Amino acid sequence: MRSVITGTGIGLPRHVVTNQDLARLMDTSDEWIRVRSGIQERRYAEPGQGSTDLGAIAARSAIADAGLTPADIDAVIFATMTPDHLLPGNGPLLQVALGLRDIPTFDIRQQCSGFLYGLEMADLLLQSGRYGRVLLVGAEAHTPFMPWHLAWDTLIGQSTREITEAERAENTLSRDRTVLFGDGAGAVVLEARDGAQGLGPIQLHTDGTGAGVLTMTGVSFKRRPFVTHAQIQAGETIPVMSGKEVFKAAVTLMPQAVREVCAMASLEVADLDLLLIHQANLRIIEGVQKALGLPAEKVPHNIERYGNTTAATLPILFHECRAQGLVRPGMKVVFTALGSGLHWGAALYRS
């Protein structure tokens, strides 16, 4: 028995925010953002629209694509670093939104590697024989991280108010991170089936000594209270990232993980038909591609249109590759990601 992806879907907010839009709020430009990240635009959620809402849109599409109904799902895995609430997690909220049965829901937090870790968990649930169909969702609503004082309405076209110079200066302090992220969701349905098609092998890693290179210091239960106005004013509720260290780790560790799963499957890297890399930065994607010696046509990307949607990048990319006919029966596809933790790894999928 193997775990097979039988349905995919995506959930994207309707608001498209371009680099030129961001230049209205901070000292940046389309060229500045493109050169550093490859991003041209991203999607932003509606006010009050969270990662569960986006995940539900993607999940409904994935379930329908698999030819199933919500009543057919036996378990849910929800990967996100931006849950609607600190508690409960998004799993129970998605259960209600979809009208699922009384089934277990699992919330996991491996950030940019969340979907990859979710694949491993879904595979284990299915191989146990206790579950026949698992819904895996990766969804994010990053925009609440952004410290853009009273600028949300401007970005999504609901106001023409001009940003003050003081607001512009403060927004610019975090531009190295805020220009990177977008909102969105992707979902897949996995089922246990006989045959050579499906998941495996999967190789996952964690190195907690690198936790500090990508973290958020505010909103901590080590503090009393866990969040204060001072933390917000100091920008401690915005993720902190050491860009050089993340880049170095990404272009080193992801290629290593890809080689590991290929070796476990007695394949050469050149045997792969597609490599789907977490969409964090176009320079990282190109660095991983170069390290593995793969041609550009085997390494599709969509970061230019969506930015970094963290746990959603891989399922969104996979869905689009299927829709474009890039994923065909008999292909060997590898997913790979690296994110805060540090968590990273790779998974081979035979379509």
How would you describe what is shown here?
It contains 13 helices and 13 strands. The protein has 351 residues and is of the alpha/beta class. It folds into 2 domains: 2-193, Thiolase/Chalcone synthase (Peroxisomal Thiolase, Chain A, domain 1, 3-Layer(aba) Sandwich), CATH 3.40.47.10; 198-350, 3-Layer(aba) Sandwich (Peroxisomal Thiolase, Chain A, domain 1). A 5-stranded mixed sheet has the order 1-7-6-4-5, with helices on both faces. A 4-stranded mixed sheet has the order 8-13-12-11, with helices on both faces. A two-stranded antiparallel sheet has the order 2-3. It is globular and about 60 Å long. The two termini are 14 Å apart. 45% of the residues are buried. The model has no long low-confidence stretch (mean pLDDT 94).
Sketch the topology as an H/E string, one letter per element: EEHHEHEHEHEHHHEEEHEHEHHHEE
- Number of separate strands: 13
Mean pLDDT level: 94
Termini distance? Answer: 14 Å
**Do you know the CATH topology of the largest domain?**
Peroxisomal Thiolase, Chain A, domain 1
Unreliably modeled segments: none
Bin the helical content.
Answer: 25-40%
CATH superfamily of the largest domain: Thiolase/Chalcone synthase
- What does the largest sheet look like? 5 strands, mixed
- Give the C-level CATH assignment of the largest domain: Alpha Beta
Whole-number total of structural domains: 2
CATH architecture of the largest domain: 3-Layer(aba) Sandwich
- Helix/strand/pairing category: alpha/beta
Strand order of the main beta sheet, please? Answer: 1-7-6-4-5
Gyration radius, in Å: 20 Å
